[in-house]
Write a structure and sequence with these properties.
Elements (H helix, E strand, L loop, with lengths): L2 H13 L2 H11 L1 H7 L1 H5 L3 H33 L1 H26 L2 H16 L1 H9 L7 H20 L15 H17 L6 H6 L4 H12 L5 H14 L7 H6 L1 H19 L2 H14 L4 H52 L4 H21 L4 H9 L2 H33 L2 H20 L8 H20 L6 H8 L1
């Protein structure tokens, strides 16, 4: 691996962690934040207050939904670099500023708006994975993707220690966290402008082979084999030459439809896990289990410390065991988290508290192994270039809409049905894991063209066996697939 490529990845990982810091520390700052806005909240009636609390719990995911809506257009029209660098950072800066201003004017709706902009920024993080994966050699895609997410989570983990009430996690100082995110986003924006656009985007979308070669040389080094790389780019460009640019066309093409359904299934792994509920209600869940704010913070620090080693293992593990095995491991960890969470709700306080911490340790391990990284990674490895933006957009919209709905309903459903929702999520996760284990191809070490051909041949073989037609030779029938 070229040293410049690794250095650029580390830079993105550290300075691009601003959204992760806000998302992670928000839970730990719930108590001082709500204390700050109590006057603002009390201005509204009881019904409006309930709505504000629900909106606040879902605001981050509402932002992610809006970010997903605009992601495809921005990715294809503005390019990977401008979307992942400029727009992502600008939205984070706006979100951070709104949060700081909201404290000055004691405006809870303004704070919620800041959370929405942070969510938009985090949705565009998927484009950063796309940008990085298109800029690195095929054999390093998994390692670089997990290294980037490892750096993000590590920065967020360090920030957790500053959320202790006797440091900055109090009524007077919580605004330093959005201020820190603004600083990181500003530096990331300014310096990253000097990095080149994705060579694949330049070659396929912009038809600029000269700029593509300069970008390849920047990321791969002077020893890069231009002819070999460009041959793969050309084959990938030919896959969608017949046009699969709309949702209807996507569903009409059997191979593209299978890829879309696989990515959608992978997108639902985080949705059906406890991650989304914890993102909004983790501190509230601990406090409901009779933890103080200080004890809840310590519990979160403990679960993060427990899972910390997996953060450093994951970039190497993914290139050892492959994507399919890692996804199965992550899903199993998520299911264990639900199982022990369900058990904890049936226990007395003395047993509930340690069981709850034990349960959430599984979830943190799943996150550090790549719970939030596998979906963009598999998009990069399975989806032809011109269709990546669309598949990323559609799968994110559907998965995030479901997450928003779950988060919005969680307080009411949990109060009425207790463990009913966790049990439903556990069953859905189990069914989804079985299906994905059966249909997900192993993409490790394969180009997008090779993965596409593998799925294409498998589908043609199934059709031949069950319907007695078709050929497993992709050259004779590739056009009919598109």
């Amino acid at each position: 691996m070229h040293s410049r490529l690794f250095a650029v990845t580390l830079f993105h990982a550290i300075f691009g962690s601003h959204g992760d810091i806000l998302a992670t520390t928000y839970n730990l700052l719930t108590v001082p934040i709500l204390e700050t806005f109590q006057t603002s909240i009390n201005q509204y009636g009881e019904g409006a207050q309930g709505l504000l609390y629900s909106l606040n719990g879902s605001s981050y995911f509402i932002g992610m939904f809006l970010g997903a809506v605009i992601s495809s257009y921005c990715t294809n029209k503005l390019g990977r670099k401008l979307t992942a660098i400029v727009l992502k950072n600008i939205f984070c800066i706006i979100g951070g500023l709104l949060m700081i201003v909201s404290k000055h004017y004691i405006s809870f709706p303004l704070f919620i708006a800041g959370n929405v902009f942070t969510g938009i920024s985090m949705a565009l993080k998927h484009i950063m994975f796309m940008y990085l994966s298109e800029s690195v050699p095929v054999k390093y895609v998994g390692f670089i993707s997990l290294t980037y997410s490892t750096g993000n989570f590590l920065m967020a983990f360090i920030a957790i220690f500053f959320t202790l009430p006797n440091v900055f996690g109090n009524l007077d100082c919580w605004q330093y966290f959005p201020a820190c995110s603004i600083g990181l986003a500003g530096l990331h924006l300014i310096i990253s402008l000097f990095f080149p656009e994705s060579p694949k985007h330049l070659y396929i979308s912009k038809k600029n082979s000269v700029a593509s070669r300069l970008s390849l040389q920047f990321y791969h080094g002077k020893s890069v084999n231009f002819e070999e790389v460009e041959e793969n780019f050309s084959i990938e460009m030919a896959i969608t030459a017949a046009g699969t640019s709309s949702f209807t066309q996507l569903l009409e093409a059997p191979t593209m439809r299978r890829i879309f359904l696989i990515i959608l299934g992978v997108s639902f792994i985080p949705t059906f896990s406890a991650f989304n509920i914890k993102a909004a209600y983790l501190t509230s869940i601990y406090i409901a289990a009779s933890f103080s704010q200080y004890e809840a913070t310590n519990a979160i620090i403990f679960t993060n410390l427990f899972a910390l080693p997996f953060l450093f293992i994951s970039p190497f593990l993914i290139e050892r065991v492959g994507r399919k095995s890692l996804l199965t491991l992550i899903a199993i960890l998520c299911m264990f988290e639900w199982v022990f969470f369900i058990v904890s709700q049936q226990l007395e306080k003395t047993l509930m508290q340690p069981t709850l911490i034990f349960a959430f340790s599984f979830g943190e391990a799943a996150k550090n192994f790549g719970l939030l990284t596998l979906q963009p990674l598999l998009i990069a490895e399975m989806c032809p270039h011109t269709i990546r933006g669309l598949i990323n957009q559609l799968t994110l919209i559907i998965a995030i809409f479901t997450a928003v709905l779950i988060n919005f309903l969680f307080p009411v459903v949990h109060a009425v049905f207790g463990i009913g929702l966790p049990i439903a999520m556990l069953i859905l996760m189990f069914i989804l894991t079985i299906i994905l284990h059966k249909i997900l191809p192993e993409t490790m070490g394969k180009t997008t063209n090779e993965t596409y051909a593998l799925i294409f041949k498998k589908l043609r073989k199934v059709n031949f066996i069950h319907h007695n037609y078709g050929s497993t030779d992709d050259s004779s029938s590739r056009s009919s697939d598109l």
